[in-house]
Amino acid sequence: MFGKKLKERFVFNAPVTLVFSIVCVIAFLLDGITDGKSTISLFSVYRAPLSHPLTWLRCFFHIFGHVDWAHLSGNIMYLLILGPMLEEKYGTLNIIAVIAAAAFFTGVINMVFFPQVMLFGASGVVFAFILLSSITSSGDGRIPVTFLLVALFYLGGQIYDGLFVTDHISQLAHIIGGIVGTGMGFLLNRKKSTANL
């Protein structure tokens, strides 16, 4: 009786967000167990022969790898805050599309323009979610002021950091993720408003 009531209290409310977070934790644990080999093989992206099947897999899987616990927990916190709201509004398939697009574009652009850089982490997806969440009311063709402010502060800050700050954070992944989130947000909201007509 108690177990049944407990089960009814907990809801698997955002399957994509929860599974994504769990896979990130598993990838992080595998990194520790394999002394980084799993991250190099699967959970990071870098220039490699296009004929190698893992090259294309890494274009998507690099979003699961993280350098340390702070990197992982910071990204997962944002995902867990934003993901459920976005899944509820746009649906699981659309959120999978946003994640896949952010992963693919950041991966391919990194391979093309930064061949010596190994990129990994969910930051691009986080920025896609941040910008996507700020566009939630743009279905009627109007642009929310909150979106403009988020874009100004987040993307503007990333561009500034990319030009003037030397660190090991990929501002390019953040910028690309933000662009993907923005584009997908306007596209999804336009589809939704067209469907309501």
Helix content bin: over 70%
- Gyration radius, in Å: 18 Å
- The third-level CATH topology is Rhomboid-like fold
Q: What are the secondary-structure elements, in order, as H or E? A: HHHHHHHHH
What general form does the structure show? globular
CATH class: Mainly Alpha
Q: Quickly count the domains.
A: 1
Task: Write up what this structure looks like.
This protein is mainly alpha-helical and 197 residues long. It has one domain: Rhomboid-like fold. The protein is 72% helix and 0% strand. It has helices at residues 2-9, 15-33, 37-41, 53-61, 69-90, 92-113, 123-133, 145-164, 171-195. Helix 6 crosses helix 7, helix 7 packs antiparallel against helix 8 (145-164) and helix 7 (123-133) packs parallel to helix 9 (171-195). The longest helix is centred in the C-terminal third of the chain and has 25 residues, at 171-195. The model has no long low-confidence stretch (mean pLDDT 84).
What's the topology here?
Elements: H1 2-9, H2 15-33, H3 37-41, H4 53-61, H5 69-90, H6 92-113, H7 123-133, H8 145-164, H9 171-195
What's the short story on this structure?
The protein has about 200 residues and is mostly helical. About 70% of the residues lie in helices and about 0% in strands.
